[in-house]
Design goal:
The relative contact order is 0.15. The termini are far apart. The protein is α/β, with parallel strands linked by helices and 477 residues long. Strands 5, 15, 16, 17, 18, 19, 20, 21 and 22 form a 9-stranded mixed β-sheet that branches. Strands 6-7-8-9-10-12-13-14 form an 8-stranded parallel beta barrel, surrounded by 4 helices. Helices cover 32% and strands 23% of the residues. It contains 14 helices and 22 strands. The longest helix is centred in the first third of the chain and has 25 residues. The structure holds ligand LLP. The site of ligand LLP has 20 residues, from α12.
Length: 477
């Protein structure tokens, strides 16, 4: 009898613990802690290692269409990554042309016959080679600075496919964009509308405008990259938008032609997109009832990618859901994807410089650092880290860290890998917000960038030199 009681109590105890653990993992946690949670799960099982990369055969990596193991060597398209390190050294960003092309086409074809424009969010990766590739595919661009405008024009982007977003555009940037004859300015406040009107009138031009409206929708992503809540700095408050659309007529040198929103980045569910879209559509109906003509609806970017175990909707399902909400309306549809076009088309190649065993932890000190890829340090973001060559050595749990003098300088925690000095590692999903957020902290020159196309490796950005870093500095006379 006592035995039965003890067993029942034991069972109840473990059920309670289990329920509590699930609660802690998935309820009441903001997205930031969820990211951390995912990161700590990594030590147990990896989404990619689920695809059984060991053995001598070809193994495709789920979520990374152009990256696969051939005979235990990680390849980008037909090129083994160790070839790239021999030719271009490490750290090095490596992109796949076919992965970029496939990602763009998936969005574009999903719209089928509907009038649309995919505007790549340049901030995700502003490499001229990537911009040029997208421009040749017919892609438009979402820019947020005069610098990004110059890049897009230099890369052959069509100005009539450029939208200019951003909460703090300067008048010189507006001037450059007006001179280039861009498609549209996404304006975020009445004050900005006033400045744009003034700049346009000085240039004797009419500025085409979309008002970026903040729909107050929870994107359920990391708080730093959530932009569509009323407490965020972005957009015109939903409740004030209609008024500004009507009063906007007083600005003679702007023409309000569109409606825009962007609620955040790395969204892994459709529901917030749908909620924002429906709010925009209700506003659109009210504007049309007031006889205001809205030519396009820009629904922003934000579709997430798989870093670890996320299961974001495909581009096709995402576009289909938006189109279903939009229904019979005839406005042209714009979207501004960044991460989902480039994120899983790139990786950061790095080499193990030192293995350091302490009584407490094992460190692999690699030659890439937080200055090359800041996402782990900044958002506790998880990036899969894979061996470039699979060996049969014994596996240990490593902290993958860089040489920068900060404890926050890590690329991955608690990774189970078989490592030795000189081994190459691939930090996956680094195509978006990797190179574009890199810096020269610790006077570290920025990494080289290459693009693989079949069996060709193209250097698309040379490794920076220290001479280049200090070239613009002056000492006192
Ligand atoms: N449109 C606007 C107005 C944006 O602000 C952004 C991103 C995008 C489009 C593109 O969003 P995407 O499709 O890439 O999610 N550094 C962060 C991400 C910052 C996103 C900023 N805005 C990260 O590494 O996760």
């Amino acid at each position: 009898m006592i035995c039965i009681y003890v067993s029942i109590l034991h069972l109840l105890f473990w059920q309670l613990i289990h329920a509590y653990t699930i609660h802690c993992c998935f309820v009441d946690l903001d997205a930031r802690s969820l990211w951390v949670e995912r990161a700590s799960l990594s030590s147990t099982r990896s989404a990619i290692r689920d695809t059984e990369i060991s053995g001598g055969r070809t193994k495709e990596l789920s979520g990374f269409p152009s990256f696969e193991y051939h005979d235990a060597r990680l390849c980008v398209e037909s090129v083994p990554l160790d070839h790239i390190s021999r030719e271009f050294d490490t750290p090095c960003y490596v992109y796949s042309r076919s992965a970029l092309t496939t990602a763009y086409r998936e969005f574009d074809t999903a719209f089928a016959e509907r009038d649309h424009l995919v505007c790549y969010a340049v901030k995700a990766n502003p490499s001229l080679a990537i911009l040029n590739l997208f421009a040749k595919l017919g892609c438009g661009f979402d820019i947020v600075s005069g610098g990004e405008l110059q890049r897009v024009l230099k890369a052959g982007g069509d100005p009539q496919k450029i939208v200019f977003s951003g909460v703090g555009k300067r008048s010189d940037e507006m001037r450059a964009a007006l001179a280039a004859n861009i498609l549209c300015f996404n304006v975020e406040s009445e004050a900005e509308l006033g400045i744009l009107n003034q700049v346009a009138s000085e240039m004797d031009k009419i500025a085409p405008v979309s008002l970026r409206v903040n729909p107050d929708v929870n994107a359920r992503t990391h708080t730093y990259i959530s932009t569509g809540l009323k407490e965020n700095k972005f957009g015109i408050p939903f409740t004030e938008a209609e008024k500004l659309y009507t009063s906007g007529k007083k600005f003679a040198n702007v023409r309000i032609i569109g409606l825009d929103c962007h609620i955040g980045s790395q969204l892994t569910e459709l529901a917030p997109f749908s909620e924002a879209c429906r709010k925009m559509l209700s506003l659109l109906d009210r504007l049309e009832a007031r006889k205001l003509q809205i030519e396009h609806l820009d629904l922003g970017g934000g579709l997430g990618i798989r870093y670890f175990r996320e299961n974001p909707p495909s581009a096709q399902n995402y576009v289909a859901a938006l189109c279903a909400d939009i229904g019979h309306r005839t406005q042209r549809i714009l979207i501004e994807p960044g991460r989902s076009l480039v994120g899983n088309a790139g990786l950061l190649l790095t080499r193990v410089e030192y293995i350091k065993h302490t009584s407490h932890r094992d460190f692999a000190i690699v030659d890439a650092a937080m200055n090359d890829l800041i996402r782990p340090a900044l958002y506790d973001a998880y990036h899969e880290i894979l061996p470039v060559i699979i060996n049969g050595n014994s596996i240990k749990t490593y902290q993958i860290v860089g040489p920068v003098c900060e404890t926050g300088d890590f690329l991955g925690h608690d990774r189970k890998l078989a490592l030795a000095k000189g081994d190459l590692l691939a930090v996956m999903s680094a195509g978006a917000y990797g190179m574009s957020m890199s810096s020269n902290y610790n006077s570290r020159p920025r990494a080289a960038e290459v693009m693989v196309d079949g069996d060709h490796i193209h250097l698309i950005r040379e490794r920076e030199s220290v001479e280049q870093l200090i070239a613009h500095e002056r000492i006192l006379p």
